[in-house]
Specification:
Blueprint: H1 5-23, E1 33-37, E2 47-55, E3 61-70, E4 74-82, E5 88-90, E6 92-93, H2 95-98, E7 107-114, E8 125-133, E9 144-151
């Protein structure tokens, strides 16, 4: 027994959408976060750094790295570093993207645009190095990060 016309149309359109999404996978941003390296213990009031690894940037994609941090620490600098650790580039703040995120109580969000030129054609990974000053009193510090990517309209 054949399917009614509207069910057949619905199924075919659904399959076409799936095939379309599979076919354009290369056009979509594909950045991935890797390992986050942070000190096991941070003395109160001292400077410390965390390193967030990610896949290298594609030439056709704009990327921002977003980090959620406790309000009681001070962010001193944000850098992008190539996988060999030979080059480091200062990351520029990207305040307009911060409004897209909801921060948790006692935390703040910082976003940085990646214009490092550490592209996937030459590298497999990029490291994002964040340096902070720890709070004056001992506390547990939790960091959350994510990548925000979109196709570059100028390419």
């Amino acid at each position: 027994m054949p399917l009614p016309g509207h069910l057949c149309y619905y199924s075919v359109s659904k399959l076409l959408l799936i095939f379309f999404l599979i076919g354009v996978g290369d056009l979509l941003a594909q950045g991935k976060l890797g390992t986050i390296i942070a000190p096991a213990e941070i003395p109160a009031g001292e400077e410390f750094s965390i390193l967030v690894s990610a896949s290298a940037l594609q030439r056709t994609v704009n990327r921002a790295i977003v980090i959620e941090i406790p309000e009681n620490i001070k962010l001193l600098k944000a850098l992008a570093v190539d996988e060999e650790g030979e080059d480091s580039i200062s990351l520029d703040p990207y305040p307009s993207i911060v409004s897209m995120f909801t921060k948790e109580k006692g935390r703040r969000i910082a976003a940085f645009t990646d214009h490092s030129g550490i592209y996937s054609a030459n590298y497999t990974a990029v490291g994002y190095l964040f340096t902070f000053t720890a709070p004056k009193t001992a506390s547990t510090l939790v960091f959350k990060t994510c990548l925000v990517e979109r196709g570059d309209p100028t390419v």
